[in-house]
Each structure stands twice: as structure tokens, then as C-alpha cells.
């Protein structure tokens, strides 16, 4: 049960974030949607200053979560449970980095 839990947690935590970041990046970059940026707000993070910077931040986090997601799949299929646990921990640290990145003004 413990191994199954960490496999699912590693896959879901990174997969959901990868999907969300890719969806927004593709919608803005290729589908012509406008990014909702608040550059004049006192609460807006630094990457709301320009659309180019916003897209770059989205792409970086989309790539990070995608790499973790693919690694989780590979290690789950190989039954390398230590590596799956590492992917889960790395996914949680990346989520923490997203929160810190959003807090920087």
C-alpha cells in the first residue's frame, strides 16, 4: 500500500501541475488567448510585469513538472521505489518553488 500510495502521489502531483502549466502556456502562446496580468497591482508577482516573462516562467515550470512526471512513470514501471519516492519529494519541492516564485514581488 505504501509503495502504491507514493507511486500515485508522484504521478498525480506532477502530472496535474504539468497539465495545468502546459494548458495555460499553449493557450497563450498558440491559441491567441490573452494572459491575465496585473502589473500595477501591489500584490502581483514580478513575472506579471510582461507577457514574455510570464510565458517564460510558465514554460520553465511546465518543463520541470513534465520531467518529474515522465521520470515517475519510468521509475514506477521499473519498480524502482526509491526513485519514485525521490520524484515525489522533488515534485513537492517544485510546488514549494512555485509558491516562493509567486510570493516574490
The average pLDDT score comes to 87
Oligomeric state of the chains present here: single chain
Number of helices: 3
Number of structural domains: 1
Description:
By secondary structure, the chain is mainly α. It has one domain.
Which structural traits does this protein have?
mainly alpha, 3 helices
Q: How would you sum up this structure in a few lines?
A:
The chain is built from three helices and no strands. It is an all-alpha fold and 105 residues long. The model has no long low-confidence stretch (mean pLDDT 87).
What is the strand and helix layout of this fold?
Layout: H1 2-29, H2 51-77, H3 81-103
Helix pairs in contact: 1-2, 1-3, 2-3
